[in-house]
Amino acid sequence: MIEYGGVVYKYRRLILLSVLIYIGSVSSDSLPLHQLNLPAGFRIAVFAKVENPRQLAISQSGVIFAGSRKAGKVHALIDQDGDAYAETVLVLAEDLTMPSGLAIRGNDLYIAALSDVLKISNIDQRLNQLKDPEIIYRGFPNKRHHGWKFIDFGPDGLLYVPVGAPCNICLSDNPVFASIQTLDVTAQPMILQTFASGVRNSVGFTWHPETGHLWFTDNGRDLLGDERPPCELNEASQRGQHFGYPFIHGSSIADPKFGKKLGKLQTTAPILELGPHVAPLGIAFYEGDQFPADYRQQLFIAEHGSWNRSPSVGHTGYRISIARQTSRGLEYDTFIDGWLQDNKAWGRPADILELADGSLLISDDKANVIYRVSYSGDDIHNGPPG
């Protein structure tokens, strides 16, 4: 039994045993955190050891949830004693197909697993009695290529769900591919509506704290060389915009095969071109008070890292970058790097979540951990939670 928030949870013996075995098999102490470079006054430490974490979500009571792409599991992480380390890691669901995407609405947990959206109602009250999640929508394509998803509820109450292109570069007859869709989970029947088109593979988005516009990352196509095209940061100011794929990449690179088919279609250029092949995933505007004031409302970007850039040129990404609004416009710089050493990666950032105290969680689906980044202003080194 485990007590959290005044509630005693009784877990199924088999699942708890599997969690304890997994935790015992992973040693975050062996991770070379000293190789990570952060600005002065910041610290990074392991918050939790968890298998293949991707998108993160947090419940009303502060329980952290992590989806996975490869493990097929959804985890719950509980920091019981408030020491900035999750002592308890629970498997809530397993044997799902790429359940990368998670979102909280009220006290319900929503899970995106390839073609399905699943739901666990009253999640904080049911951690001790979970059964198989309820499938509430089964209407997304079942193509595994770019089939994993990042999801969240918008200010309008709709569930936003990107659907990646089922290929590197193609023009599908199904308009749901290469788009961002919305789903009203309260309607019967639920109907998909296209919010944005021409989006090759977005695996991270959020809403601007002032304008309310949707900002999202998009992964650029492969096989146009090591230096192009750039990956993208985009801003959708309204429903119905087209962001170029597969006709145009970045601001102006016409696709060799589809560029001539653009015709009179009006497309929206990215607000920021990111590096080539950096694979941007989760993003978050910083709204807390723990970091210095000049970080407030700046955008943090998890760059998962390139996979097929020529070794002789060197891989890109594998870092947390930051997009700052300055007097010169939007500028792009590194916040944390060091996961790539001698052109080999020991970690891959995937998502970013701000906690109530103003610290940031970062999931890493290669190192199998979730980090916590905090700021004290002291000249300290990376290490244990503090």
Explain what you see.
It is a single chain. The chain has 386 residues and is mainly beta. It has one domain: TolB, C-terminal domain (Neuraminidase), CATH 2.120.10.30. It has 1 helix and 31 strands.
Low-confidence stretches: 1-27
Give the CA-based shape.
globular
Strand order of the largest sheet: 12-13-14-15-19
Mean pLDDT: 91
Percent of residues in helices comes to: under 10%
Number of strands: 31
CATH C-level category:
Mainly Beta
- Major sheet size, sense and barrel closure: 5 strands, mixed
* CATH architecture call: 6 Propeller
Please state the CA-atom Rg, rounded to the nearest Å: 20 Å
Mind telling me the CATH superfamily name?
TolB, C-terminal domain
CATH fold-level name: Neuraminidase
Binned strand content: 35-45%
Helical/strand content category: mainly beta
- The number of distinct helices, counting runs of at least 4 residues, comes to 1
Quaternary structure classification:
single chain
In whole angstroms, the N-to-C terminal distance is: 27 Å
Question: Which helices and strands occur, and which strands form pairs?
Answer:
Layout: E1 2-4, E2 7-9, H1 13-25, E3 42-49, E4 53-58, E5 64-68, E6 74-78, E7 88-93, E8 101-105, E9 108-113, E10 116-120, E11 134-138, E12 152-153, E13 159-163, E14 179-183, E15 192-197, E16 205-207, E17 214-218, E18 230-236, E19 241-242, E20 248-249, E21 253-254, E22 272-276, E23 280-285, E24 299-303, E25 319-326, E26 329-336, E27 340-341, E28 344-345, E29 349-354, E30 360-364, E31 369-375
Parallel strand pairs: 15-19
Antiparallel strand pairs: 1-2, 3-31, 4-5, 5-6, 6-7, 8-9, 9-10, 10-11, 12-13, 13-14, 14-15, 16-17, 17-18, 18-22, 20-21, 23-24, 24-25, 25-26, 27-28, 29-30, 30-31
